[in-house]
Amino acid sequence: MPSTLNIAVLGGDGTGPEVAAEGIKVLAAISKLEGFTYELTHFDWGGERYLRTGETLPDGGADELRKFDAVYLGAVGHPDVPPGVLEKGLLLELRFQLDQYINLRPVKLFPGVETPLAGRKPEDIDFVVVRENTEDLYCGIGGFLKKHTPDEVATQSAVYTRKGCERCIRWAFEFTRKRNNPKGKMLTLVAKTNVLTYGHDLWWRTFQDVAKDFPDVKADYNHVDACCMWMVKNPDYYDVIVTTNMFGDIITDLGGIIQGGLGVAAGGNINPDPGGVSMFEPMGGSAPKYTGQNVINPIAAINAMAMLLEFTGQPKAAQRLYKAIHQVTGTKMKSQAAGKMGHGTKEVGDLVVAAL
Ligand code: IPM
Ligand code: MN
């Protein structure tokens, strides 16, 4: 456990800084209660800076972040910046350069939170998606031929490596073992082996190989299309899912909505290797239309802070914080939607502090 937790804060764009401020407020409270110290260093990377300087991730930026114990991110995305610039130039660049090969996205329905799935209760929706975070269609390999002509050709390649899928699958098995679900430990590989007969064959074979080291974990498989149906029909079926980057992106938005929306969903971009730096973020975007109005839901960002603590040697503080979040969603909030919470952004942060 680091003696002082050194956190790089990337508030980012839109409502990012507002929700991050609530996560930091909660950090201030819990660090006192649990007796640890922390230090924050703020970075102004994001859309505003890009519009001013043309820079997304400044030169040497990733190396600078390597000096920290963790990165806490608000949101990336600016209405005046064309799509892809900040996403690729900042968010994906950081995931890749810091080799955060696990994108961990818990899908958990908190008490009091409404799910669009009829009749479902918190005990029915509680699983985790482990998304590979450095390969697949995200690697940016492709190009155009005869661009802007009627004969135009575009290619976009998915790249999968044995190393890339094995380290992710192995981590997912270990995570499933540690999670130790009382209903039985099960890891479901979600892919599309019936069509992607090269890339996902590699995933499938690797999954089978690694499974041999985890006889106590049931190794399960779903095609991604079927998984989308099951997540809606029988979310209680799942314990842990491991999947590719692109499919993981898609199914975790589905996961996000069944757990009550982007106001609550959070994720960790994790580099589990020794000395690796991980980055924690609310899943919602920068929500420009709500910026500066004190109406955006900070629960996802506070949830991301709890994940940060869980993965940086403060598991007790994390558990305490999760409990406080559940108390607030369960007894204090009318809704998880922006502007409908029954409280402002800052007040929800205060409620979590009070619940601690
Ligand atoms: C996410 C986001 C990103 C992704 C975008 C913003 C590049 O949708 O974190 O899921 O596709 O990974
Ligand atoms: Mn996404």
Give average pLDDT, whole number: 97
In oligomeric terms, what are we looking at?
single chain
Number of extended strands: 12
Strand content bin: 15-25%
Order of helices and strands: EHEHHEHEEEEHEHEHEHEEHHH
| Low-pLDDT ranges | none
Counting structural domains, the number is 2
Largest sheet, in brief, is: 10 strands, mixed
Helix content: 25-40%
Describe the model:
The chain is an alpha/beta fold and 356 residues long. The protein folds into two domains: 1-108 and 265-356, Isopropylmalate Dehydrogenase (3-Layer(aba) Sandwich); 115-259, Isopropylmalate Dehydrogenase (3-Layer(aba) Sandwich), CATH 3.40.718. Helix content is 39%, strand content 22%. It has helices spanning 16-34, 47-53, 61-65, 85-97, 162-179, 199-211, 224-233, 245-258, 299-311, 315-331, 345-355, and strands at residues 4-12, 37-43, 70-75, 102-108, 126-132, 136-145, 153-159, 186-191, 218-223, 240-243, 266-270, 278-282. A ten-stranded mixed β-sheet has the order 2-1-3-12-11-4-5-10-8-9, sandwiched between helices. It has a two-stranded antiparallel ribbon with strand order 6-7. Strand 8, helix 6 and strand 9 form a beta-alpha-beta unit. Helix 1 crosses helix 9, helix 5 (162-179) crosses helix 6 and helix 7 (224-233) packs parallel to helix 8. It is globular, with a radius of gyration of 20 Å. The model has no long low-confidence stretch (mean pLDDT 97). Manganese (II) ion binds next to helix 8.
Write the layout of secondary structure elements.
Layout lengths: L3 E9 L3 H19 L2 E7 L3 H7 L7 H5 L4 E6 L9 H13 L4 E7 L17 E7 L3 E10 L7 E7 L2 H18 L6 E6 L7 H13 L6 E6 H10 L6 E4 L1 H14 L7 E5 L7 E5 L16 H13 L3 H17 L13 H11 L1
Parallel strand pairs: 1-2, 1-3, 3-12, 5-10, 8-9, 8-10
Antiparallel strand pairs: 4-5, 4-11, 6-7, 11-12
The site of 3-isopropylmalic acid has 4 residues, from helix 4.
